[in-house]
Prior knowledge:
The structure is a single chain. By secondary structure, the chain is mainly α. 83% of the residues lie in helices and 3% in strands. The longest helix is centred in the N-terminal third of the chain and has 125 residues. The chain is rod-shaped and about 185 Å long.
Amino acid sequence: MKLKLSFIVFAALITLCCTISIRERLEQLDNNEFGKRILDIIQVQINTGETPVQTILDILMKLREGLLNEQKNLEAVFQNSASDCLKMKPQLKAEIRKYKKKKIASETSLTTSNADLEDLQLQLRENEKVHAALKEQGEALNKAREDERKKYEDAVSDIARMREALKRAKEILSQIASGESSFAELDRHMGSFKVEYDYARGLQKMANTFAQMASKADPKLLNHIFEVIDRIIQQLGENEFALTQSESVKTKLHEAQAQQQRTLIFDASTKIQNVNARIQDVKNRQLKLKNDISHYDTSIQQKLKELGDKAAQCKTQKNSYDQRVESIHDQLAIIEEVINLVHTHIEPVKDLSLIHISEPTRQAEISYAVFCLKKKKTKP
C-alpha cells in the first residue's frame, strides 16, 4: 500500500516498536475514511515537529466528545421524530375510523331513502290511476250531460214543430168549413212531418184521429175540435215549460257535479305534484349521499396513503438514525483504538527523534528509505 510520506514518518516510529499486527491495523485504518482522517490529523501534528503526545490525545478526546454530542443530539431528534410518528399514526387511524363511520351512516341513509323512493313511486302510480279514473268519470259525466242536453233540444224542437203543425191543421179545418180546402189537404199536412219526442208523437196521433173524425162527422163538430187543438197547443206549451225547468235543474246539478269532479281532479293533481316533489327531494338527498360516500372513500384512501407514507418516513428515519449511530459507534471505536495505540506505542518513544539516513532507493511503485532513532538531548 502507498502511504503518504508524513504517515510514513509516523509509521516508522510505530514500526520500530510495534509488531507486524499493529502495522497492519494502521494500514486498515488508513483504508477507512474516518480512520484516514484521524491518521491525517496525527500526521499533521507529527509534521509540525515538536508535538507533545498529549496534544494528539487531546485532539482525539475532542473528536470523541464531538461524536458523543452528535449521538446525543441524534437521539433527541430521533425521540422527537418517533414521538411524532407515535402521535400521527393514531390520529390518522382515528380519522380513517371517523370517515368509515360516516360512510356507513351515509350508506344506511341511502338504503333507507331507496325504500322511501319505492314507496313514493308506488304512491305516485296509485295517485295517477285515481287521477286518470277521475278524468274518465268527468268526461263520462260531460258526455251524459251532452246527451241529455241534445234530448232536451230535440224535444223542444219537436214541441215547436207540433205546435206549428196543429196551428196549420186548425187553419186547414177552418178552410174546410168555408169550403176553401178539403180533408185530403188536412191528411197530407198531418202526414208531412214526423216528430221524435214521445209526447209530441202522441199528440200527432191524436190530431190525426181528430182529423179523421172531422172528415166523417158533421162540420158543426169543428168548433169542438178547435177547442181540443187549442188545449193540445196549450199543453204543449206547458210541457215545453216543464222541460225547460227540468233542463235548468239538470244544468245546475251537472254544474255542481262537474265542479265536484274538477275539485277531485285538482286534489288528485295536487297529490301527484306533492309526491313528485317528495320524489325529487329523495333523489336530491340520494345524490348528496352518493357524493358524500364518494368523498368519504376518497378521504379514506388519502388517509391510508398518508398513513403508509408516514410509516415509510418513520422507517426511513429509523434506518437513517440506526446507520448514523452505528457509524458513530464505529468511529468511536476507531478513536479508542488510536488512543490505545498512542498510549501503548507512541508515548514510550516520545523521547526519541527520527533521523533521515538516506533517500528512497528509486522512483518506483515500491521504494524504501533508511531512518534511525536518536534519543533527544535533555535541556539543562
